[in-house]
Write the structure tokens for this entry.
Amino acid sequence: MRLCTPDPRRYNTPLARHSPFRNHLEAALVRSLLAAYRYAPFRLGLSRTAFRLFDAAAPRLRRAALRNLELALPETSPAERARILEGCWQSLSRVLAGIACFPDIDKSNVHRFIRYDGFEHFEAAKRRGRGVLFATAHLGNWEFSAFAHALMAEPMSIVVRPMDNPLLDDLATRYRTLSGNAVIGRGKDFLRPLLAALHRNEATGILIDQNVTADRGVFVDFFGLPACVDSGFARLAARTGAAVIPGYALWSEEESRYVLVFEPEVEITGDTLRDTQAIHARLEAAIRRHPGQWMWIHRRWKTRPPGQPPLY
């Protein structure tokens, strides 16, 4: 496996320059969609329709998802892969519908939409006093997990990449901080506020499941394939002593609400490659339990080890 050095500057990539007209048009469209989803009694059906149209209009994403399923779950049939992909679109629909309702969710009603499972793991991590790193992913509703945790327990920080459109970036930040959370990654030095939050024994959530370029990550086994992942998460945990808790807001059909699952702490040894592999083994197991709730449309195995052919 190839060990590479991650570049923290990737969290602060300069925004792409689009015309002001395009930025305002995109922002107006998103605000209109959020308003429609927020007030329409059939908001989930509306978002499902929108994603089906998006699916039809973006066949490249469908091809990437089906290829991912073929690679990661070769034992599944074409019909099973199609059902998983449909579940992926439904899950993304719930994410969008949920975000639209953030202004209407507070401490008085948040439990109608979500409950905890494994909160004792978070409590144990907090008692250590070194901060908590939530290893999360585009699984279930990653936006609502952080939003709801702030209301049900305490505010936390989330590390994000800036959007190309600064107006949309501002809008996303406003929604993400409605419940009291802080957004990290918008300035030039994202490590400083992140380390400060951990020093205060606070929690920070970081998405760990996306592909990175070979000069920024390490290759670990993920669904039986080498996947290039950012090793900075494991190195940060080892440096700070923060507890690593895998956490995901997973949809429960039986309860018609989310379950915010906190798994037992991942042991951090200080061996970057070993620790990164351990964290992603947990993520893989969670995805296997809930395959229809992961964002399969991302080309997760795009970066290949030297000498290996492309998979897409």
Observations:
- Residues 8-293 form one domain.
- The chain has a mean pLDDT of 91.
